[in-house]
Amino acid sequence: MTTVVLKNISKSFFNSKLKKMEIVLNNISLTAQHGEVTVLMGQSGCGKSTLFRILIGEEIADSGCVSILEKEVFPLNKKNLQEVKKKFGILFQYGALFNSMNVGDNIAFPILEHQPQLHRDIIDIMVDTKLRQVSLEPEKFKHKMPATLSGGERKRVGLARALALDPQLIFYDEPSAGLDPIVSRTIDKLIKNLVKMLGIASVVITHELDSAFAIADRMIILKRAVPEHNDDWDGTIVYEEGTPDDLRNSQKPYTVEFLGEFSNFEICKNCRFVQQKQFTTCEKCGKPQSE
Amino acid sequence: MSGYFKRKEKWHKKYLQKDATLPMEIKVEEVSPQMSVIIPQGEIDMGSSGELRDVLHKTTKNKVQTIIVSLEDAGHIDSSGIATLIEALKKVEAYSGELRVVINTKKIFNVFKIANLDMVFKIYESTQDAKNA
């Protein structure tokens, strides 16, 4: 089942300095499948965040078509959008927690908004369960205010909130940015587990190469098309799409440049641990790399 | 609970609550005065878990020693359904009773496992196994 379909999306913004419209996305078409982690990558300014905002309904595209969970949400269909919004979760880059509410109320917020008939005791237990899912102790964290949390904890609380309504699809904006390798790997593992065990589709926007290769089932590299002879910007293009192995072995110059040093690494087929090619067995699970 | 949620709850009670709950069929089999089997049929989600909660509340109020919740006919259970079972488990444990859960599909078992609840509940593969345990 195709969870997300973007067809011929274009978006331009008005540049007040140059006093003209500037194209950011030009005719982009992408898909994300159910039960898969789709990773979107690309250099800064290539339009990843604009694409992300269009996907979650925060930005309106100039033209094209967006379908999420088999419902068309753009061209704007408010009824479908409201219905679909209950079925997907979003993890923002810095968690985007409400600073005036404690952790428990932050996680309970979407439940109270969309499922007000649930008893408060049930919501409290749901909040505890969600916190445990992201490896945070409810007794310790439930009553804390967001300002007292570390970056990693904020992100995990943000993920618990994204999971609150049992979504079928989660959008992640830089899930492991600014986190130490241990917490980063915990988040990666969690994303993979959600997909593997519950079949939740995931669309991840990230810059972290090791994290991307560890979680991705399919990767999409976006490239900002550079105009050669004039200053008219013609928008982002989808440069390459494929499995992590396809991209690692790609010969396309931009992919090789973008992935850079990463082409010297390989991923264990058993546990998806990333390590240098020189090793014959996986350092984590011990399986031979040729298997 | 913060002021915002109190106001929100009041508003929802006034305007929305009557239409919000969807019906779900729940069979209750009284094997003996000390053992009841509860069989929810259909999807246990945020719209229907309230009904399961009502049935479990009645059973725990009567202090039935062994309660078996069979999820054999439940196509799906979400976190509100899980929370309902956790609430019932706490009540049952308070009077030293037992709550057994029957799960026969991997899909439902995974919902328990991802929240590390497969170690908290006593899980059986069939209702007969749960009765005999």
How many structural domains does the protein architecture of chain B include? Answer: 1
| Helix and strand sequence of chain B | HHEEHEHEHEH
Order of strands across the main sheet of chain B: 1-2-3-4-5
Number of strands of chain A: 12
For the record, the CATH architecture of chain B stands as: 2-Layer Sandwich
Record field, number of beta strands of chain B: 5
Unreliable parts of chain A: none
Tell me the fraction of residues in β-strands of chain A, as a range. 25-35%
Domain count of chain A: 3
Family (chain B): Belongs to the anti-sigma-factor antagonist family.
Protein name (chain B): Anti-sigma factor antagonist
Pfam families (chain B): STAS
GO molecular function, one term (chain B): anti-sigma factor antagonist activity
Describe, in plain words, how this protein is organized in 3D.
Chain A has 291 residues and is α/β, with parallel strands linked by helices. Chain A has 3 domains: 1-87 and 169-178 and 191-242, 3-Layer(aba) Sandwich (Rossmann fold); 99-166, no CATH class; 250-290. Chain A is built from 10 helices and 12 strands. Chain A has helices spanning 48-55, 78-85, 103-114, 120-133, 138-141, 151-162, 181-198, 209-215, 244-248, 253-259, and strands spanning 2-15, 20-33, 37-42, 63-68, 71-74, 88-91, 169-173, 201-205, 218-224, 236-242, 265-267, 274-276. In chain A, a hairpin with a 2-residue loop joins strand 4 (63-68) and strand 5 (71-74). In chain A, helix 3 (103-114) crosses helix 4, helix 3 (103-114) packs parallel to helix 6 and helix 4 (120-133) packs across helix 6. Chain A is globular and about 55 Å long. Chain A starts with a strand and ends in a 15-residue tail after the last strand. Chain B has a single domain, classed as 2-Layer Sandwich (Transcription Regulator spoIIAA), CATH 3.30.750. Chain B is an alpha/beta fold and 133 residues long. In chain B, strand 3 (66-70), helix 4 and strand 4 (98-102) form a beta-alpha-beta unit. Chain B is globular, with a radius of gyration of 16 Å. Chain B has a 5-stranded mixed β-sheet with strand order 1-2-3-4-5. The model of chain B is unreliable at 17-21 (pLDDT under 50). The termini of chain B are far apart. The interface between A and B is medium-sized, with 30 and 32 residues.
